[in-house]
Structure formats: structure tokens, C-alpha cells
Amino acid sequence: MTRNFCTSPVDAALVDRVLAAALRAPSAGFAQGVDLLVLDEPERRARFWELASDPGWRASGGRAAGLMAAPVLVLPVAEPDTYAARYGEADKAASGLAGLETERWPVPYWLVDAAFAVMLLLLAAEDAGLGSLFFRLHGDPDTVLAGLGVPPRRCLIGAVALGHPTVPDPRTSPSRRGRRTLDDVVHRERW
Fold first, then answer.
1. What angle do CA 29, 30, 33 make, to 5 degrees?
2. Between 12-22 and 109-127, two packed helices, what is the crossing angle to 10 degrees?
3. Are 121 and 160 in contact (CB under 8 A)?
4. Is residue 181 classed exposed, middle or buried when 0-12, 13-18 and 19+ CB atoms within 10 A define those classes?
5. What is the pLDDT of residues 26-85, one digit of tens each?
6. Secondary structure of residue 180 in the 3-state scheme
7. What is the CATH architecture assignment of 12-171?
8. CA-CA distance, 169 to 125, in Å (whole number)?
9. What is the pLDDT of residues 105-149, one digit of tens each?
10. 20 to 30 A Cα–Cα from 17, which one of 72, 103, 104, 147?
């Protein structure tokens, strides 16, 4: 994950290639209820940062400045109602989700699908030689979405910064921790 970006723009065709990879993500019931809001104009990115972060953090410099320099922000926006409608169709009747309020779904498929799309976007960015970072919002997601003109009843799981990395990229706690081994993670036939 990159936390220090160059301000230089990313070629639009390259951004589209990375976005296209996200469209290949699995989708529960092939509902395809995830949209990607791309902010690459300075004014729109500034508006996002106003809505999604704390003024003290923005003014702190350092990590904030490196992240806010990213020339592209991608917001994965999911629509639960799309999934409710899809799982209300006849071929999904056996799922037990038809007519169930989305707040009561045991697994919110729209959030899973948004996460799948983000993962493919991050992998495509890496393959394209771009830096990327998935990060959580520190502002209220509904306020962020409304402030950016997104229709109501949508969910935001975070945001992705894209751009060319610059050095130094600050080391963070994940880079100081070892990755768990296969033997630590995989349980075969029993725990």
C-alpha cells in the first residue's frame, strides 16, 4: 500500500484499465450492485477530503500530505436495494433472503462484492505499476456520499487512492510485522 503519492496525473487510459479490472469481480447473484465514483479533478478531490477527514489531520502535513497528493480517488459505492431486488427473483427463492430487510441479511453481499471489486482494482494498479491504498473514511459515509451527489441508500466501504508512488514512502506497522505462514493459517480437516 502506497501512502506517499506524486501529484502528477495518471494517464486516463491506464485508470480505465485498472477500473475495468474491478468490473470483473464476482457478484452475488450477478446483481452487479457496485458502482465506482472516480474523483480525478482537484476540486472534487478537495471536496472529498473536506467531507471524509478531520481538518487537523489534513493540516498535519506528513502522511496526510502524501496521501492527499494522490491524483485519483476511487470510491466503491454499493447499493443494497439492488441485491434485495435480485434475491427477490424466482431463481433465488431458495436463498431465504427474499423479502428479508437488508439490515437482517446474515452476510451483506453488497459489501462483499464491493470488497471484491476493490481487491481487483488494487491488484490491477500494482500490475500497472501504480501505487494504491485502500483506506477508511474518518467522516460520516452518508455525509460524504450526499456531499458528492451520490443518490441515497448507497453504502461506502472506504476509498482507494491511486497514483504514482514517490519516495520516501513511510514505513508503517504492516511492514514491520511478519506475514503468517501457510501452516499458521490453513487448518486441514480439523482446527
1. 105
2. 140
3. yes
4. exposed
5. 999 999 999 999 999 999 999 999 999 999 999 998 789 999 999 999 999 999 999 999
6. coil
7. 3-Layer(aba) Sandwich (3.40)
8. 17
9. 999 999 999 999 999 999 999 999 999 999 999 999 999 999 999
10. 147
